[in-house]
């Protein structure tokens, strides 16, 4: 997430998608896959998730060059049990594998009311929220999550044994889908770095000093490599469960089997659940309930006087702005993309 | 959770179940339902979850007397779409409704690989972990959650608009199931009260003072009625999503429609998802993965030198002790139960 950096260029959305797709064609992507992957990167930046959008594209290209990601690999069905399927991502591009598996979960939910696809041997899915929005656009309630390399110490421990294992939950709503996309660490390393660069403290404790004291000092957390799970012991437990469930369902790697190097992180496990509430005869009721809940949330008395925002609300505002003014992209990265 | 209070009696497990069942028979429960409800209460205390076990039985009896809970009501199927069903709890006993719906989700997962049952118009399910253990005993990976009355201010707000909406995730494992049972507030009001009575501060900030300062003072949080969501804005978002998803799937009440009174909290919405990993041809693999993850967790270097515990690990130890020495029950409550 975050705000555009001061030097960012604003690139028209369509121009951005086409430029990214062109680069991917050069890496052996088919035309269709190049466009879909390009769109997923561009959409993340368009929606304000700059950390996992175009600004991450160069790292993705390195992963292609280093053969961490196999541009041509497509996910294959491993085993199936009605509404439940296991797929193997074959080390293909994480965003294409994830998109395919959420699409398959949506199809399964058409047939069975609910569908679940577990995916192993895949790569970083970039912005997890992408797959929540994808499901919500299809009218589905969705839950999906991924494990990651070890990057988070369990509560009470010093060394990172857990992943920050992002969890996504989406509920469709006519006036704007409600989509939560949250990692199990209080702050990502990217967010911590950005606070340090701005020279400000974190708004709440985000990890430990090397002496084991809770701290709001971003530099101290980067040094100790001990970020904090959300809710202390609670997020620690939740991160463990997400890893266990994803790896067990996918028959894939658990966090402890994934290389602890952002450039080499690969063969992660994911799970995608889509549920079709319209089949329960309550499509209107579902929309009505969502509106009632959001309306009640907006009525909350706040400290600032501003309304409480629901997950995904800011995305729509940012999307509007970025479609109008152009999508913010780091100038050097845009230069790299244009050079191809 | 918690430790037995100093004055607690230790009652043999079987005697406890029978005494509780006898009382429920007097309230019009059938023999079978009385025993199942009694067992769910006794199991919670046996497993160390004293706050939601036998010590909560008197409040449950009040709810029966006040007709908040209808002793004789059974859940009925409202609509169905293959692996997805919606049930109506008809204001029956929450623990029986929840048990029935998890059982049904398990059956559906037998047929379809995954099953989801949404339940509306039900009552407090007591210990949420009960239904996670139930699924894990059946070899299922499970996710279930409930909404509650409004008892938690959204991040940035002053008034409680969110429920603390407990979330349960279970993964079966031969050497001990891994079961997480966590509410979205950092501490329950019960836990906050118990810290205050002991005259100690919370180990981490658990809410706000009336002036809006984060605090570890339990009394100040009881006064402000502003407990803290886990992970600040993150748990606030997660609590909202759980409410939205449960109420939309169940076609039932959202938190904002539930009476904000612990004695009158009723007609809540819940969701139960069970997944059968054995149907993916990987039963052994699932167990092996779970063992690997737990073993890695146990290898973490800790601050205290003690091993990091996985969710559910302490339950098994407490269960052993309480089966051996008797289940701790508040003396006055045991007297009330014995009088019938």
Structure characterization notes:
The structure is a homodimer of 340-residue chains. Chain A has 340 residues and is of the alpha+beta class. Chain A has two domains: 1-65 and 313-340, Hypothetical Oxidoreductase Yiak, Chain: A, domain 1 (Orthogonal Bundle), CATH 1.10.1530.10; 77-185 and 229-298, Ribosomal Protein S8, Chain: A, domain 1, CATH 3.30.1370.60. Chain A has helices at 13-26, 31-46, 57-65, 94-112, 129-137, 189-198, 218-224, 233-250, 283-298, 313-325, 331-339; strands spanning 9-11, 76-81, 84-88, 114-122, 141-146, 167-171, 178-182, 207-208, 214-215, 268-275, 327-329. The mean pLDDT of chain A is 95. Chains A and B meet through strand 2, strand 3, helix 4, strand 4 and strand 6 of A and strand 2, strand 3, helix 4, strand 4 and strand 6 of B.
Quick structural overview:
The structure is a homodimer of 340-residue chains. Chain A has eleven helices and eleven strands.
Keywords:
homodimer; 340 residues; alpha+beta; Hypothetical Oxidoreductase Yiak, Chain: A, domain 1; Ribosomal Protein S8, Chain: A, domain 1; 2 domains; 7-stranded mixed β-sheet; two-stranded antiparallel sheet; 11 strands; 41% helix; 16% strand; globular
Task: Summarize the main sheet of chain A.
Answer: 7 strands, mixed
Instruction: Return the string of H and E elements of chain A.
Output: EHHHEEHEHEEEHEEHHEHHEH
User: How many H/I helical runs of chain A?
Assistant: 11
The separation of the N and C termini of chain A measures 26 Å
Name the strands of the widest sheet of chain A in spatial order. Answer: 2-3-4-10-5-6-7
Q: How many β-strands of chain A, per DSSP?
A: 11
Oligomer: homodimer
- Looking at the overall shape, the CATH architecture of the largest domain in chain A is 2-Layer Sandwich
Largest interface: A-B, 84 and 84 residues
* Whole-number count of domains of chain A: 2
Helix % of chain A is: 40-55%
Structural class of chain A: alpha+beta
According to CATH, what is the class of the largest domain in chain A? Alpha Beta
Radius of gyration of chain A: 20 Å
- What coarse outline of chain A follows from CA principal-axis ratios? globular
The portion of residues forming beta strands of chain A comes to 15-25%
Contiguous runs where pLDDT drops below 50 for at least 5 residues of chain A: none
CATH superfamily of the largest domain in chain A: Malate/L-lactate/L-sulpholactate dehydrogenase, NADPH binding domain
Mean pLDDT of chain A: 95
CATH topology of the largest domain in chain A: Ribosomal Protein S8, Chain: A, domain 1
């Amino acid at each position: 997430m975050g705000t555009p950096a001061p030097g960012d260029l604003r690139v028209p959305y369509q121009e951005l998608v086409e430029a990214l797709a062109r680069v991917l064609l050069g890496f052996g992507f088919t035309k269709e896959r190049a466009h879909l992957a390009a769109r997923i990167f561009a959409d993340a930046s368009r929606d304000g998730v700059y950390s996992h959008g175009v600004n991450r594209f160069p790292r993705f290209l390195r992963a292609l060059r280093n053969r961490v990601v196999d541009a041509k690999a497509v996910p294959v069905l491993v085993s199936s049990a009605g509404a439940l399927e296991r797929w193997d991502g074959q080390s293909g591009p994480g965003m294409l594998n994830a998109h395919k598996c959420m699409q398959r979960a949506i199809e399964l939910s058409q047939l069975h009311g609910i569908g679940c696809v577990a995916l192993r041997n895949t790569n970083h899915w970039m912005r997890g929220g992408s797959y929540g929005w994808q499901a919500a656009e299809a009218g589905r309630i969705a839950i999906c999550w991924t494990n990651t390399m070890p990057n988070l110490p369990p509560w009470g421990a010093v060394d990172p044994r857990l992943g920050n294992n992002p969890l996504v939950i989406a509920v469709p709503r006519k006036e704007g889908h409600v989509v939560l996309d949250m990692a199990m660490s209080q702050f990502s390393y990217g967010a911590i770095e950005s606070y340090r660069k701005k020279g400000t403290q974190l708004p709440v404790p985000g990890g430990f000093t090397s002496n084991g004291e809770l701290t709001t000092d971003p530099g101290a957390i980067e040094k100790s490599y001990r970020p904090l799970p959300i809710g202390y012991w609670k997020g620690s437990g939740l991160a463990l469960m997400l890893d266990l469930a994803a790896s067990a369902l996918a028959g894939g790697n658990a966090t402890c089997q994934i290389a602890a190097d952002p450039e080499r992180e690969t063969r992660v496990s994911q799970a995608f659940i889509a549920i079709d509430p319209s089949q329960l005869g309550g499509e209107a009721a579902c929309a009505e309930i969502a509106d009632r809940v959001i309306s009640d949330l907006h009525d909350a008395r706040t400290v600032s006087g501003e309304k409480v925002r629901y997950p995904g609300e800011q995305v729509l505002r940012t999307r509007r702005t970025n479609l109008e003014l152009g999508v913010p992209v780091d100038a050097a990265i845009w230069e790299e993309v244009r050079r191809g």
